[in-house]
Design goal:
single chain
Length: 125
Amino acid sequence: MILVAAVVGVVLLAALAVFQLALVGGAPLGRFAWGGQHVVLPPRLRVGSAVSIGVHGVVALLLLQAASAVDLLPGGVVDVAMWVLTGYFALGVALNAISRSRPERLVMTPVALALAVVCLLLALR
C-alpha cells in the first residue's frame, strides 16, 4: 500500500512536471496555473514553472524514499519532509479551491488533494 501511494504521487508529480514544462515552452495552458490570469505565461511565471519542475523532482524522490524504494537521505529528514509536504499540499488544496480560475479550481484542487493524501499516508507509515 505504501509503495502504491508513492507511485501514485510520483506519477502525479511527473504529470505536473510535464505540464509545467509545457507552460515554460509557451503552451496556452496558463488558465490552469498561477491563478489562471494568463493564457500564455509571462517570462517571470515561466521561470516559476521551470523552478517547480525541479521541486517536483525532489518531492518525487522524497516520496520514493518514504516508501523505502530509494535510500538517499537520513530517515529523520524524510519523516519531517512528509509532514511538511502534507501541510504544503493541504495549503495547495485551499489555494486552488479559491482560485479565480475555474479551470484551475476544477483540475488542480483534486491534484493537490491527492498529493496531500499521498504525503499523509507516507507520513503515517
